[in-house]
Amino acid sequence: MTKETSSTPLLSVGIVAKRSGVAISTIHFYEAKGLITSVRNEGNQRRYAPVVLRHIAVIKVAQRTGIPLEVIRDALSRYPPGSRLSATQWKTLASGWRDDLDDRIKKLVRLRDELNQCIGCGCLSLKDCPMRNPGDMLGAKGPGARILERP
Question: Domains in the chain, ordered, with CATH?
Answer without folding.
Answer: 11-115 (1.10.1660.10), 120-151 (no CATH)
